[in-house]
Specification:
The chain has 420 residues and is α/β, with parallel strands linked by helices. It has 2 domains: 12-183 and 402-419, 3-Layer(aba) Sandwich (Rossmann fold); 186-400, Glycogen Phosphorylase B (Rossmann fold, 3-Layer(aba) Sandwich). The chain has 15 helices and 15 strands. It has an 8-stranded mixed β-sheet, with helices on both faces. GO terms for molecular function: glycosyltransferase activity.
Length: 420
């Protein structure tokens, strides 16, 4: 009588990220850790845990305990320490594969490479990232990415439109690349979106149609020009604009709103919440979805993206999406059968699953582009049937990005990498 074969021991998967802040990449990192632990022995690593772990997964988290910041000499020294400590950690854990998230982690992963396989997860546009500037930006674009990225066994991009950037802009070999979109907890988001508003919050939503946007208050999200379009809109019809999120541009945005003559509510000032304001800055919310679902429109003015989580989450909530046709992600979600235009669109485009709009970061055309936004918002707020149609299509589209569908792709890629 033959003895049944013992199951193969789980492969050792090390997940590396630069920091554990509140960004979309950190949320994806958490989700990957949770899901991949069903197939592999997962350990997480981070450069340091300054600020704490905002998205704990339950898997083991190890810190390399190397600080960031400091002088240029400090940064170079810390970079070397990170490489050395990650190399030692890979050996100690007998890692079979190390998957890194965020660019700094990618470099350390590649330069510490031993016998393990190395996979990079690229979360956003590199060519259009407004934070890649100056001498360090030049070094990243001209030296590090072209010189290092081809050392990876596989590079997973979260959007199809990142691939041509990497190939044409940084010389990455096409065979290194595969696109796996981010996934969304569709049922969980739908359930959370039904949590009722407080009496005070509901009064705001009952007072006028609400435009809502969600995300960090940063250069990337480019919310300032949206305020100009909104200020023009409410001269023509009643509306409210709700911001869910916080960030370093908080004071700049609230000041700009007041300069436009808008009445501004700021949650952090502990003011009474009433319908008497035009713009509401609600700050970070444990459940942003309950503020999105009852809104009339979701507005998304980003200057660049990867595969935008906030946009997808709003669509799950059944809210019509009005978004810039920015690099990268929105077109892939809203108009998947179309290619990316060579030049930015200058008119509103009624896509299959929402509205694609002109970018709001081109100085030469900004005033005209803001007028396009104002006109489209005005039209949609006056057309309830069209909003309902777009909302139904939005939620239907997001069924393509469930956890099950996306992680079948991730496991297939990792198994292929390990086999080769």
């Amino acid at each position: 009588m033959s003895t049944p074969a013992s199951p193969k021991p789980a492969r050792n998967l090390l997940l590396l990220i630069s920091n554990l802040g509140l960004g979309g990449a950190q949320r994806v990192f958490h989700d990957h850790s949770v899901e991949l632990a069903k197939h592999y022995h997962v350990t997480e690593a981070v450069f340091n845990i300054e600020g704490g772990n905002m998205y704990p997964s339950g898997n083991e988290m190890l810190s390399l305990e190397v600080d960031g910041g400091g002088s240029p000499a400090d940064k170079i020294r810390n970079f070397g320490r990170r490489i050395g400590r990650l190399r030692a950690l890979k050996r100690r854990l007998r890692a079979d594969v190390c998957v890194s998230h965020l660019e700094g982690a990618d470099y350390v992963n590649l330069l510490s490479k031993g016998s393990e396989k190395v996979v990079l997860c690229i979360h956003g546009s590199k060519l259009h990232d407004g934070n890649i500037t100056g001498l360090v930006g030049w070094l990243r674009k001209k030296v590090l990415m072209p010189g290092l990225y081809n050392r990876a066994d596989k590079i997973v991009t979260v959007s199809r439109d990142i691939n041509p950037e990497l190939i044409e802009g940084f010389g990455v070999k096409p065979e290194k690349l595969v696109t796996i979109n981010n996934f969304f907890e569709v049922a969980q988001i739908e359930a959370k979106s039904r949590e009722p508003l407080t009496v005070q919050e509901q009064a705001v939503y009952d007072a006028a149609p609400v435009l809502v946007t969600s995300g960090r208050l940063t250069i990337q999200k480019n919310q300032a020009p949206l305020l100009d379009s909104f200020a023009a809109l409410i001269k023509r019809r009643p509306a409210k604009l709700v911001f869910v999120g916080d960030g370093e541009l908080r004071e700049d945005l609230t000041r700009h709103a007041r300069q436009l003559g808008l009445r501004v509510y700021e949650a952090w000032n502990k003011d009474a919440l009433t319908p008497d304001y035009d713009v509401y800055f609600l700050g970070l919310q444990q459940n942003p979805f309950k503020y999105i679902r009852p809104a009339s429109l979701f507005v998304f003015p980003s200057a660049w993206e990867g595969f935008p989580m906030a946009l997808g989450e709003a669509m799950i909530c059944g809210v019509p999406a009005v978004t810039t046709d920015c690099p990268t992600g929105p077109r892939e979600i809203l108009a998947p059968s179309t290619g990316t235009p060579r030049t930015g669109i200058r008119a509103a485009e009624k896509a299959e699953f929402g509205m694609l709009m002109p970018m709001l970061n081109q100085p030469a055309t900004l005033a005209a582009d803001q007028r396009v936004w104002t006109e489209m918002l005005y039209q949609l707020l006056g057309d309830e049937a069209e909003r309902e149609r777009l909302g139904r299509l939005a939620s239907l589209r997001m069924q393509d990005f469930t956890r099950e569908k996306i992680f079948r792709q991730w496991v297939a890629v990792l198994e292929d990498v390990l086999a080769n």
